[in-house]
TrEMBL record:
Belongs to the PNP/UDP phosphorylase family. GO terms for biological process: purine nucleoside catabolic process. GO terms for cellular component: cytosol. Gene3D superfamilies: Nucleoside phosphorylase domain. Homohexamer; trimer of homodimers. It comes from the Bacteria. Catalyzes the reversible phosphorolytic breakdown of the N-glycosidic bond in the beta-(deoxy)ribonucleoside molecules, with the formation of the corresponding free purine bases and pentose-1-phosphate. SUPFAM superfamilies: Purine and uridine phosphorylases. It catalyses: a purine D-ribonucleoside + phosphate = a purine nucleobase + alpha-D-ribose 1-phosphate; a purine 2'-deoxy-D-ribonucleoside + phosphate = a purine nucleobase + 2-deoxy-alpha-D-ribose 1-phosphate; uridine + phosphate = alpha-D-ribose 1-phosphate + uracil. This is Purine nucleoside phosphorylase DeoD-type. Residues 37-251 form the Nucleoside phosphorylase domain. The record marks 238 as: Important for catalytic activity. GO terms for molecular function: purine-nucleoside phosphorylase activity; uridine phosphorylase activity. The gene is deoD.
């Protein structure tokens, strides 16, 4: 009987904890997440961003280890939330952030592999649009393709911020792949022929959901490696270029 009472008590406390948060995968309460948010894939990078660039930070989420923080950058309230890798997890967090917490501006900050000769490691790509091998939009649109694109005000602001800082910027299409390890390379060659700048794994989901909910979204990517040459950046080089990208992302976040 005592064991049963303890079990029922824990179930009640678990249900209360669940009811105190607004979504399944994010533990924040109402008002704890800013309307503008940065979305790195790595939750530890979210922590690094918060501790390095933001003031007055508060951790609002530790569910499943996917850390989320809210703080201020140059006086404006901004949040940062890890999303994990790939379209499925990005879809979960973007959906809940927008639908459950009222986020209005989402900026993905991450890395990608370059797919064009004129795009070099350490360059920065602003994803104007995203193509994909994922079937997510075919399911959503009854077998038809949907072309998700960035928010132009965010894209324009990020471009102006990057040019002012003298960064090597590229604006264009990226490929959001469902597969990190791919046996058939023929599609990669075709994507290159069609001018796709880089490959990553999340942007299609972010842009599609932004369109669905009528909010703003942009992906800003540091080129960490090159599909054609095999060149890779070191950890130290990635950190330096990541800093440049983060400054562009944060300035863009507070400009809208």
């Amino acid at each position: 009987m005592i064991a049963m009472l303890k079990f029922l008590g824990e179930q009640a406390r678990s249900e209360q904890r669940r009811m105190n948060r607004l979504s399944v995968h994010i533990g924040a309460k109402q008002g704890e997440i800013a309307e503008t948010i940065l979305l790195p894939g790595d939750p530890l990078r979210a922590k690094h961003i918060a501790q390095t660039y933001m003031e007055d930070i508060v951790c609002y989420n530790e569910v499943r280890g996917m850390l989320g923080f809210t703080g201020t950058y140059r006086g404006k309230r901004v949040s940062v939330q890890g999303t994990g890798m790939g379209i499925p997890t990005t879809s979960i967090y973007a959906n809940e952030l927008i639908a459950d917490y009222g986020v209005k501006t989402l900026i993905r900050v991450g890395t990608c592999g370059a797919m064009q000769e004129h795009v070099h490691v350490r360059d920065v790509i602003l994803a104007q649009a995203s193509c994909t091998d994922s079937s997510m939009n075919r399911h959503e649109f009854s077998g038809y393709d949907y072309s998700p694109i960035a928010s132009f005000p965010l894209l324009q602001s990020a471009y102006e911020q990057g040019m002012a800082k003298g960064l090597k910027l590229h604006v264009g299409n990226v490929f959001s792949s469902d597969m990190f390890y791919r046996s058939d390379k023929s599609v990669v060659k075709k994507l290159m022929d069609y001018g796709v700048l880089g490959v990553e794994m999340e942007t299609t989901a972010l842009y599609t959901l932004a369109a669905k909910y009528g909010v703003k979204a942009l992906t800003i990517l540091t080129v960490s490696d090159h599909v054609l040459t095999g060149e890779e950046t070191t950890a130290a080089e990635r950190q330096t270029t990541f800093h440049d990208m983060m400054e562009v992302a944060l300035e863009t976040a507070i400009s809208i």
